[in-house]
Amino acid sequence: MSQENKIFIEVKPDNITSGESPYYEMDSDSFDTMVVHCADPRFQTAFKKFVAEELKIKNYAPIVLGGGIHPFGSQKALPVNFESLWDQISFFIKAAKLKQLIFINHEDCKWYNRLIDLYPDVDLPVKEKEDLMTTMARVHQDFPDIKIRTFWAGLKDNRVCFTEVKHT
Ligand SMILES: [Zn+2]
Predict the structure, then answer these.
(1) What does pTM read for this prediction?
(2) CATH second-level architecture of 31-164?
(3) Which of 58, 96, 65, 94 is nearest to 81 (CA)?
(4) Per-residue pLDDT tens digits for 66-108
(5) CA of 106 to the centre of ligand 1 (A)
(6) 70 C-alpha vs ligand 1 centroid, how far in Å?
(7) CA geometry: angle at 105 spanning 131 and 37, to 5°?
(8) 167 C-alpha vs ligand 1 centroid, how far in Å?
(9) Domain boundaries, the chain
(10) What's the 147 CA to ligand 1 centre distance in angstroms?
C-alpha cells in the first residue's frame, strides 16, 4: 500500500471525555464469579442490583449478550454462537480460576422471541428455563467442581423478580 492510500486515524484523548479528568478508576481484579445474562437494557439495573445486593457478589466478570446462555439450548441451529460463548466461558474458568458461575434468563426476552421458530413445540419461558439446566449440565461435563446457580428474572407489575431455577 502506498503512503497516499494509508488511512490515518488520530485519537485525541482530550476529545473523548468532556470531564476534567479523562481517567477512570479500575475495579479490583479480585473475582471468582462470572455472570451471564441478556443485554436487554430494561433489565440491566435489576441484574446488577440482584447480583450485588441479593447474592452479595461485588466484583464479577459479566458476559452480556442477547439471549444470555441461549446458545447452549440451540447448539445445532447456532453452532457459531455456541462456540463463541463456550470459548469465553471456558477461558475465564481456566484463566481466572473461577469458582462460581451465575446464569440468568428473563421473561419477555426479545432474543428468544426472535428464535421462536426454532422451538415450535415449547413455550419460551419453559425453553429458557430448560436452557439454564442444559447450560449447567454442559459446563459440569468439563468443569465438574465449579458451583453454578441459575435464575429466572420474571416480570410482575413492571418490576423484575428473581427466582432460582433448579432441577425438580
Ligand atoms: Zn433478553
Answers:
(1) 0.88
(2) 3-Layer(aba) Sandwich (3.40)
(3) 65
(4) 999 999 999 999 999 999 999 999 999 999 999 999 999 999 9
(5) 6
(6) 9
(7) 110
(8) 22
(9) 31-164
(10) 24
